[in-house]
Amino acid sequence: MKKILKKCLVVVAMVGVASILLTSCATPQPPPSSSSPTPASTQPATSFKPEDYMVSLEEDWPTFSDPAVGADFSDMIAVTNVYDALVFVNNDNTIKPWLAEKWEMSPDGKVWTFYLRKGVKFHNGETLKASDVVFTLKRYHTIGEGTSWLWLNIDDAKAIDDYTVQFTLKKPFGPFLYTLVRFYVVSEKEVMAHLKQPGPYGEYGDFAKEWLLTHDAGCGPYKIKEVKTEEYVLMEKFDDWWGGWDPNAPKLFKLFAEPDSSTIRSLLASRELEITDEWQAIETYKAFAQIPGVKIAKYLVGHNFALRFHCAKPPTDDVHFRRALAYCFDYNAVVDPEIGISPGSALAKGPCVSTVPGWDPNLTTYTYDLEKAKEELAKSKYADNPGAYPVTFYWAAEVPFEEKVALMLQANAAKIGIKVEITKMPFGNMIAAAQSPDTTPNIFTEINAPYYPEAGAQIQSEMHSSTQGTVNNTHWLGTILDQEIDDALATLDEKERFAKYAKLQQEIIDLCPTIWAFDQLEQRAVQTGYFYWVGSDLNSVAACSGYPLYVHDMRIYPEKKPK
Amino acid sequence: MNMVFFILRRLALAILVLFGLSILIFIIARVIPGDPARMALGPRAPEYAIENLRKQMYLDKPIYEQYYIWVKNFLTKGDLGISLLTRRPVQEDIKEFFPATLELVIVSGIFMAVTGILLGVVSARYRESWVDSFTRVLAYFGIATPSFVWLVLFILLFGYVWPILPTVGRLSRGIMPPPHITGMFTIDSILTGNWRTFWDALLHLIMPAIALAMGGLSQAARITRSSMADHMDKDYVTLLRAFGVPNRSIFMKYLLKFSLIPTISILPLDIAALFANGFIAETVVNYPGLSRYGMSAILNKDLNAIVGVIIVLGAIYTLVTILIDIIVAYLDPRVRLIRRAA
Questions:
Q1: Cα–Cα distance for residue pair A496/A506, rounded to 1 Å
Q2: Which of A33, A72, A453, B115 reaches 20 to 30 Å from B197, CA-CA?
Q3: What are the sequence ranges of the domains in chain A?
Q4: Which residues of chain A does B258 touch, with a Cβ-Cβ cutoff of 8 Å?
């Protein structure tokens, strides 16, 4: 027995030594900084630690907090809190001055002059100058990732003086000001100090992309404290932020991903999580709401849930066939507050969300009407034997309610003889499938979020040929609406532009490239006993991801936190 | 000398296997539908940015040339390329995530081996009694229930109903990680005398480690029991009993050693499998490990990360297989004799 034990010990020791050797190959890293954030000037008279003022938000991973790289929901939450943009979007989707205090537009709409706020400090202590804005544009243009495409229309940028910057556009663009809610300014000095050479951008090396994975060069209310890849981004408040601070504003902000609902539930119960993600099943939110002090915040956020048709692939290449399917969709049942798949969501009217400026409330759209569905099917070239042309339907595995939508449409379509074949697919694979007309299914689900809070954003992203092959536009319709869309976007007068949008929206509805299922009522479980977030009291928030979760405006009261 | 030659031969074969694996996975990763550059840069990235990334990743070159560059960079610089998912060098990601998974697998493996063998021995010792029946039923449950179900059950029980264990990550809020020595928080905190961190890191490992171990330990219990039960009917055991050797001695001194050989042949493979199978557990508890990273890489068509992770996992399997042979030969002299004869 002793011999066996001895041999076992030898084996265990071998495994132990091997494992230590294997892991010791890793480059030693210095221990993470343990420095605490500097106390706010008006800190409440308590003995609470900064961690007690931490807000945890569970969203998604990866999170890229570099504004020239990130574009996804979690990216935008991080970027909006760490970087300040030229203008800010309120929860009612109006624009207000931010880093730019005021602006002027030339009569032809091509030259925009912005007057910057004075005394704004970056996290490295430098003062914001017009040259930083020019540099930021150069960085956006050179890297070309994330939301950079929004400013490809800017031909030139120059600093008139330290606090005046001028953009010259290639052609007039009506919603230009709205796009600037995404123009997050970086510190030139900070970026230039962290270039990695050699890199893909010539003299700019990697344009500090590697450094900005785990650091920041912003002037927003929060600065990056720590990034643990695949785990979380931890941000701490920037005491010198120009907008000032409330004593109960969060001192730390942790953004992380947790896909398992039972784990989220236990985190909510132990008050280690203040706000959950928006992708849980309805039943899961109901379970979260059972936890004392947790409520489900519900608000329209500017996303619409769309079932996009492949308009060049049989049988959805026939407009009557598409309309037949649109009439098969039970819109009211889906948003029913009691039994709906997305209870409380708003009925969608066309390609734009009802909360964004430029949406037309007078549009005529589709309703659930099987008789009309049969009439339309009869007009289609597939009327003789619709069952012989199965409709392929992909839904995103990460969003559970999409399956119910798919099953509902499948059941209703079967009533008029249309066969729908449903496939569950990870969203990454759906992105891949969207890239070619051969791999795009007949119906492709997508939650469309506007990149800037104006109707033109959704019209362009869904229907313009330049977006073809992306998840926003899987129609493969070509250029049929390009001229009209370009004309509307180039219209400077807002009233006139919105009138053109209204006409376009009705034309798009008549073309039926999509079943616009509903304007999504976003839900998140939120702590209410010791934490306040304005979003939990609103019916609709800014239609611009990141902005609704502006942490500076949240409040946390650690003394009220249940033990 | 024969053993040294045997090990060297196995290592040479292992290199060949890994080389073949690298070709296979390199091709498979690249023929999955979809443009990885487009997937990485988002739907609206302009064409010049996409082209730029393709060039950086050599995707503009024929696949054989891509493979040649990959092998050259790997052998000369240890460079596995850039991960599209984390935008960092893959080798850095592996260095960061591998210790976390290794730590989880070690704790899980120890629990699997000790509990599995113990249950098997007890079951055999009390063969056909209620103890045996109970252990066998338990083992059936362990094998039939996937690890994530166990984990979700544990989270609900010990994280929600009776919240005594942490449910997320590697450390709690406010606990600082120990200085990096091995990357395994428990070991690093012991080495630096940081007992609070050690305890917290250990608590974070308990639920995922046990959940992961359940399948393997049940299998180990069943194999140990069955093997021991076989040996109990052998003539030499009857003879020992006839000589009046106490049952306890027969079990611990004679039966256990021989009965453990099949278990020891299987257990390391089960433990090695945890490196790949751990992704669900790692995902559920937001544990930043290699298997979760590998799964994200596959879902996001992160070419370089897929190849890097598969090569690491392949190397682990190959090494474990060699290790098993050595351990079995070490424990059972007959195996060495057979090899010598061969």
A1: 16
A2: B115
A3: 300-520
A4: none
pLDDT at B322 over 90: no
Count CB neighbours of A494 within 10 A.
14
Put simply, the answer to whether A266 touches B42 (Cβ < 8 Å) is no
Neighbours of A27 (CB within 10 A): 9
Task: Tell me which residue of B49, B50, B42, B37 sits closest to A451, measured CA to CA.
Answer: B42
A420-439 pLDDT per residue, tens: 999 998 887 888 888 889 99
Return the SS3 of A331: helix
Question: Does the distance separating the beta carbons of A461 and B179 come in below 8 Å?
Answer: no
Measured CA distances, A353 to A221, A331, A486, A493, B143 (Å) = 29, 15, 20, 21, 50
Q: What is the pLDDT of residue B52?
A: 85
Q: What SS3 state is found at A222?
A: strand
Taking CA–CA distances from A148, the nearest residue in chain B reads B45
Q: Do B331 and B260 form a contact (C-beta atoms < 8 A)?
A: yes
| Contact (CB, 8 A) for B67 and B81 | no
Phi-psi region of A512 (alpha: psi -120 to 50; beta: other; left: phi over 0): left
Confidence at B127, pLDDT banded by 50, 70, 90: confident
- CB atoms B176 and A20 under 8 Å: no
Closest to B232 in 3D by CA, of B211, B256, B215: B256
How far is A225 from A28, CA to CA, in rounded Å?
20
Which domains does chain B show, CATH number per domain?
95-299 (1.10.3720.10)
Are the beta carbons of A228 and B288 separated by less than 8 Å?
yes
Closest-CA distance of chain B to residue A23, Å:
5
| Alpha helices by DSSP H, A386-493 | 401-415, 427-433, 455-463, 482-489
- Radius of gyration (C-alpha) of chain A in whole angstroms: 26
Q: Averaging pLDDT over each range in A190-194, A335-339, B128-132, B292-296, which range is the top one? A: A190-194
Residue B204: which of B310, B108, B301, B82 has the closest Cα?
B108
> Cβ contact (<8 Å) for A428 and B301?
yes
pLDDT in tens, B2-30: 677 878 888 888 899 999 999 999 998 88
- Beta strands A252-256 and A294-309 are unpaired
> Using the 8-state DSSP alphabet, how is residue B89 labeled?
B
Contact A316, A376 (CB under 8 A): no
DSSP-derived letter for residue A236 is: E
Distance CA A115, CA A160 (A): 10
Non-local (6+) Cβ contacts of A167 within 8 A are: A111, A112, A113, A114, A137, A154, A156, A157
Q: What is the pLDDT of residues B147-190, one digit of tens each?
A: 989 998 998 899 888 888 988 888 887 788 899 899 999 999 99
Contact A383, A376 (CB under 8 A): no
Look-up of token digits 């390329």: B81
First to last CA, chain B: 14
Q: To 5 degrees, how large is the angle CA A444–CA A450–CA A453?
A: 160
Contacts of A435 in chain B (CB under 8 A): 34-35, 38
From chain B residues 127-156, the ones with a CB under 8 A of any chain A CB are: 152, 155-156
Tell me which CATH code domain A300-520 carries: 3.10.105.10
Alpha helices by DSSP H, listed for A89-195, are 130-143, 176-179, 188-192
Q: Is B52 on the interface with A (CB under 8 A)?
A: yes
Report how far residue A467's alpha carbon sits from residue A471's, in angstroms, rounded to the nearest whole number. 9
Q: Report, as ranges of residue numbers, the positions in chain A whose pLDDT lies below 70.
A: 1-46, 563
Token pair recorded at residue A312: 């060049």
| CB neighbours of residue A357 within 10 Å | 20
Sign of CA dihedral A344, A347, A351, A357: negative
pLDDT value at residue A38: 35
Dig out the tokens for A24 from the structure: 């010791």
Closest alpha carbon to A66 in A204, A210, A180, A258:
A210
